[in-house]
Amino acid sequence: MEKQFKIFVYKEGEPPLFHDGPCKSIYSMEGNFIYEMETDTRFRTNNPEKAHAFYLPLSVVKMVRYVYERDSHDFSPIRKTVRDYIDLVGDKYPYWNRSIGADHFILSCHDWGPEASFSHPHLGQNSIRALCNANTSERFKPRKDVSIPEINLLTGSLKGLVGGPSPSSRPILAFFAGGVHGPVRPVLLQHWENKDSDIRVHKYLPKGTSYSDTMRNSKFCICPSGYEVASPRIVEALYSGCVPVLINSGYVPPFSDVLNWPSFSVIVSVEDIPYLKTILTSISPRQYLRMYRRVLKVRRHFEVNSPAKRFDVFHMILHSIWVRRLNVRIREV
């Protein structure tokens, strides 16, 4: 991939809706990817004839902010913006129509990314969609689409986020703290909120308690889905050296093509939430140590660097796109 993969970034469109995105929020992957894609000369080509894939540099986050009328529940302005943009590049260049969008891709971390992708039928049906909200119940197709991690960069950098003590210095078995939304978290809170000193589950953190420090002091970090299946806690857990416990339905974990998630995480069904302590305590110390060491190995694949470094999250996303692009055969007409 590093030697061959070339991407053409369409130059049409003006910021902030295009060529721009947030870099300091829960949606930071949109802005960081756009920035790296437009500045990284190794993968980008200015000659579309040499491109293997075509990037549509739109930001759903920015569209929600500048195009969508708040609380209107009217998605039509976003749909029209996406549709008009694709019609523009389709009329100006031959590449969209040549493949009916199959060698084109978008990237979005907003919950409405899937909704926006179906603004144009060929975009949702044919194109590669790199989404944080990788929910199969919302028509995410693992063979065609790419699951990307949701990373909450409050400061825009990894400073202070990566690292944690050794397993022997982690006295807490499992930890979760977060708001009640979606169908999974109420079940988790019902069974475990403030009921067990080993399984520390809170709707609100006790006064004076540090979220990040508690995560670093925990062996397992519980990552239940909210309204959507993606959660920044998964990456926060990896950064902290805490083995993530995934509780969701229909979620495709990021980079599953190359990462064996069951080897460094615990995957629990919603029905098994009452047995969470039994499941975690049945993991032997030796098995837990193996999982912990694998967490330390794989977390570099989720790190955001500027400029990007080999094997970091930017390269992992590109590799996932590259693998799916290999499944597409373009016939010249």
Automatic annotation (TrEMBL):
Protein topology in the membrane: Single-pass type II membrane protein
Primary localization class, coarse: Golgi
Superkingdom per UniProt: Eukaryota
GO molecular function: glycosyltransferase activity
Domain spans labelled Exostosin GT47: 2-283
One cellular-component annotation, GO: Golgi membrane
Pfam families in the cross-refs: Exostosin_GT47 (PF03016)
The UniProt record lists the keyword Transferase: yes
The entry's keywords: Glycosyltransferase, Golgi apparatus, Signal-anchor, Transferase, Transmembrane
InterPro entries: Exostosin (IPR004263), Exostosin_GT47 (IPR040911)
Subcellular location: Golgi apparatus membrane
Family: Belongs to the glycosyltransferase 47 family.
Protein name in UniProt: Exostosin GT47 domain-containing protein
Organism: Brassica oleracea var. oleracea
